[in-house]
What does this fold into?
Amino acid sequence: PAMDYAGLAEAAAEKMGLYRRDPGGWRGCRRTSEVSVSWRPSAEFAGNAYRGEGVVPASPQDVWECIKPVAGGARTKWDQNVKDFEVVEAISDTVSVCRTTTPSAFMKIISPREFVDVVLIKQYEDGTMLSAATNVEHPLCPPQPNFVRGFNYPCGCFCIPLPGEPDRTQLLSFFQTDLGGYLPQTVVDSFFPASIAAFYSNLTKAVKALKA
It folds into this structure.
């Protein structure tokens, strides 16, 4: 049976809305000038969900330009955790199946990974943009020999306009990723908070470069 990609994408977006409205149970684990990172046990898999929240010094349009999940987008240039990003199949104007590969990380303890996700883009009435994703299988993406297949459980980024502050954007992001393979839990638990802090830091540099 064919996967209901649109339905899975909608469900991931719904979950992001629930996460956004439910601030309970998150425990802070890392704070930088750009982001505060917290975690709680995931309800989706036997790992943790992570929440990043920060304000990026740029308009929502500029922030979205840097993070939007499109082929040839800016993200492969600035996000150190994204080596390659390709759209495998466009399901509709707002839903696509994508493959992301990541370079080795954490002093090469984490070997290159690949993720196949259905991604949904949604705009809300207040101007908030959401990119939500969850893992799927696709006939054009069998597992590749040089990569460990990882799995993103419902995750996403909200670009939220700040009333009266056109040049600042609240970025609220949720990550819950099973990296796959045989990694010690301590490695996984230290990788994500560091990786999310780097995501916000590199994004902040990227939007400044975009405006320059």
